[in-house]
Fold these 3 entries.
Entry 1:
Amino acid sequence: MAACTLGVGILAACGGGSASSSDGKVYFLNTKPEIVDQLQELASAYAKETGIKVDIETAASGTSNQTFTSELSKADGPSMFNIAGFDQYAKFKKYLEQVQDSEAYKLLTDEGKSYAFKDGDEAYSIPYAAEWYGIIHNKKIIRDYCAKSHAVIKSVDDITDYQIMKAVMDSIQEHKADLGLNGAVSTPGLDASDNYRFSAHMTRIPMSYELKDDGVKFTLDITGKYMGNYKDSWDIMVKDNPTESSMISSVTYEDSTAEFSSGSGVSIDLAGKHLRINHGIGGV
């Protein structure tokens, strides 16, 4: 069975598993619960226009690989599914059809096409989401900190490299009581709902710089050239957050978000997943 993929940023075309008017059905396996309402709206509009039924099923959080493996093995498996990252593309590519000749792919800009998963000139997915993540901070807390005599910076603009940022976080952690905080940084939760920020999103940064140095977009020869920087960032998050190290495995995404959003919580979130522009189908 061939199918289409929607990736994090991607929509790919369908093959043998795709729907036609004679089939009368599209089965879309979704892994993004935050866009279910938009997908249902799109499915209803498509069904009204074509008469083809669209079933949308959403995999439980953290189960996409298992769900894909199970569902794609079925004779009536999904016509379309979304994937997050090159690893899933590589694993499920055998189920995909090329999309570079599709009308949807032709509508993409050159930049959009560059984000499609490809094998040479053959594209197997279509980008459909834009997502950013990085370091975010509570402006008021940082301003209050900068006004203190113990502050190591005068404004957030003084944070220009990792060593300065580390000094700021350590200083905030040392003086957290004076600032009315529980910690300098939000807890790097390792519960299944939160650990993807650190196992996937943060690791892409050192990986991207290694690939950039090598002048490639993908390689099996990973050296971990910049992973020491990742370890430094992880270590300081573990040291300067409000949670005991032995307890971070139970901290959820909601817990971490609450820490950052509360006025007396923390001042910095290194993983920054809360800063999000999400999913071009309908948006969030």
Entry 2:
Amino acid sequence: MASHRLDRDEARQLAVRAQLLDAHRPTDLVAVVHRLTFLQLDPTAAVAPSADLVAWSRLGAAYRPSHLTRALEQDRALFEHRAMVRPMADLGLHLADMAAWPQESRRREWLRANDAFRRYVLDLLRDSGPLLSRDVEDRSTVPWPSTGWTNNRNVTQMLEFLAARGEIAIAGRIGRQRRWDLAERVYPAGTPVVPADEARRLRDERWLRAMGIARPSVVGDAGEPAEVAGAAGIWRVDPEALGRPFAGRTVLLSPFDRLVHDRKRTLELFDFDYKLEMYVPKANRRWGYFALPVLHHDRLVGKVDATADRKASVLRVDAIHRDVPFDAETTAAVHGELAALASWLGLSDVEIAG
């Protein structure tokens, strides 16, 4: 098949539109998650939790975090699995991989050595219903060995492992604490299991549709081949997305947003250098602890170092890092988004340093 030939503008617009970041805002949270395929969960809330920021950047002021909670815990239109929120309609695409987990021998051996502990957890949940991890007694025979924070955290590890295997599931949360239950009481009964190879192919197709353009190493043979001017090598594109008109807007993105998550792709398509610096010593940071990338139409133009000061009811902006010069229209648009973000967060004001 002959490759599509795209210039950089076309490639960027494909990526932006695929991620629902163009001018045509969606209106339904579940439809957004279905298009994006998942929302990543992360507890960092310097501005707001990432999943909420990603939803807000698509849906705007109409979105509330309670909408995500309702979709997960009441409507069961979404499910949480391994720090990702996914559409319940996609569950069948993941069940085969769950059943085959874990592939890694160290985890398999630990589960085998603690099979009595595993059965105790399943029986406890069956009899008691949803429980927090603190409600589960540590009955491990062999402790979980690690040089990191998971060392000897045997209850947490067992719950994580059983969820990864699809034996239990997250039924909801109390604050940040997860409530665990048997998977059969969370996931719809009779969900067809898509065979692993077919599921992988379908996930690749879904992921390419969500990204618009990606490398074959990411999406396999999904879509059709393409070449991008100035970016060596072959890409894969969603052919149904080609040739559509584009209208952009200005957006403040979560550092975990999938438009910027693949730093190499972001550099190749957008000429945008970015790194999440929350783990970088303060003295070595260039952009800030939780700097928000700034999308203006089809270009990533800067980063905003902001923090939500909820006690003072202020969105504090320590710096607006401009990767390119801002004209008056760009400056006004960025300030408008900061005001919109503060309003959505329930803050009274925006304070921009300098």
Entry 3:
Amino acid sequence: MIPKVEVYQQLLESKIVAVIRGKDAEEATAIAEAAIAGGLRTIELTYTTPNVSKVFEQLSDSDALIGAGTVLDAETARHAILHGAKFVVSPHFDSAIAAICNRYSVPYLPGCMTIKEMVQALEWGCDILKLFPANGFEPSFIGSVNGPLPNVRIMPTGGININNMNAWLDAGAVAVGISSDLTKAYRSSGEEEVIQLVKSYLGKLTKEGESV
């Protein structure tokens, strides 16, 4: 098992998390493999994908960091961890999920929208919080949160694209989650389109105020 601190470190270094949603396991695997081939090293497989455990199996030998998304309860969190998830993401905060993840020393990134939810998540040991859906906020929201809660680290997801990604990162986001762009690219033109899209994202990525 990868130490928890190393998982966080890889998340922070990656900056971009590919949130993979597929109509079935085959499609999700293809999108994930194309994203990895394009250069992304952090993948979130959502439990909205039927038979998602098969995708975990297909990616088990990958050198990418594979986590689980859309985890709605503790049972699903445990299932994900037993199938190799290195981190767990949910669209909301759930103390039962936090307890399971703490038990197995797996990072839990809950979705939070309010200061109350964020404080509660911090109290349960969550180090990175997902702002979801981010398209309901402006990047300046992070600075507003970090005023009273300077230790909150936020990963916006939902509505993040290649045109607004850097605005969020420059505003203080520690990483961003991208999703629909990858699925649309795959359904439009297949794996190669996903690979090229990922390369475009990485080419535009901002690191400490400079393009890399």
